[in-house]
Amino acid sequence: MKKIIVVADMFSADYGGGAELTTDAIISYVPNTFLVERRHCKLLTAKDVNDNLDAHWVVCNFASLEDHMKVFFCKNLTYSIIEYDYKFCVYRSLEKHLASTGKECDCLDTSLGKLNKAFYGYAQNVWFMSDKQRNIFLDKLDVLKDNRTHVLSSIFNRGNLRFMQSIKDNLKNEKYLILGSNSWIKGTPECVKYAQDNELEYEVISGLPYHEMLIKLSTSKGLIFRPLGDDTCPRIVIEAKLLGCDLKLNEHVQHKDEDWFKTAQGIPEYIESQMHHFWGRYE
């Protein structure tokens, strides 16, 4: 049985963010020919890696992975990266870098940037959330090879897909939901202004348990989601699509024009095919 070790800053038991939910959803599709273990980046030890030199390592968010561990990975391990944002930039967003510093991202010119560049370059596969994100990486990192990069998209487990299918026909009110977030990139104040400027009835939501949030979406007319920087494949937009909501998006929602997203009906089948493609790479 082949061992896969998934390494991440956090998993959904630690924090229910989009990356963490997608990581756990990916694991939920694992074929029974694999043994999957989880490791937190900050707790990874030399013994962990030396005891598992024959495993394939799947690295998700890695902000807390020590530099010497990245070097060890490059030299000694076979590994893949699932890239949720833009970790070659210290702000994890080219637009936030520009807004915060007044200049274009130059992180790849730093010593940390060069190490991260090597870390991506030595990966057996790099999985991205959208075509646009993948193209930006290929443009910025000349170490990446086209045939080692793939688009995965945000992933939902079968149980949550069934739940959304069961509530998608709920009676809807006239409100548009806005995700309340302190994260600059989510652009909550700008979304509120958009609603006001366009005379849309709206409600800002935050902190709801996951299934309560889905029910709230299912009874709402639409979703306003207009981030200030590139958001690679925001889950809430996919959830809103699956639940029959009208979408008010902008160009920073990077997956919005991809073929699989054109109709809600094809999304579950697309996710199944992506999971077959992902796990098939490691058989």
Structure in words:
The chain has two domains: 2-153 and 270-280, Glycogen Phosphorylase B (Rossmann fold); 158-257, no CATH class. The model has no long low-confidence stretch (mean pLDDT 97). It has helices spanning 18-28, 46-50, 67-76, 94-101, 111-121, 131-140, 158-167, 188-197, 210-218, 235-242, 267-280, and strands at residues 2-8, 34-40, 56-59, 78-82, 125-128, 149-151, 176-179, 202-205, 222-225, 246-249. By secondary structure, the chain is an alpha/beta fold.
Short summary:
The protein is an alpha/beta fold and 283 residues long.
Key traits:
six-stranded parallel sheet, 2 domains, globular, alpha/beta, single chain, Rossmann fold, about 280 residues
Mean pLDDT: 97
> What is the total number of structural domains?
2
The largest sheet has its strands arranged as: 2-1-3-4-5-6
* CATH fold type of the largest domain: Rossmann fold
Total helix count? 11
Give start-end ranges of low-pLDDT stretches: none
Q: From the helix content, strand content and strand pairing, which structural class follows?
A: alpha/beta
* Global outline: globular
Query: What is the correct CATH architecture of the largest domain?
Result: 3-Layer(aba) Sandwich
Overall helicity: 25-40%
Largest sheet: 6 strands, parallel
- Spatial extent as radius of gyration: 19 Å
Tell how many strands the DSSP assignment holds.
10
Query: How large a portion of the residues is in β-strands, by DSSP E?
Result: 15-25%
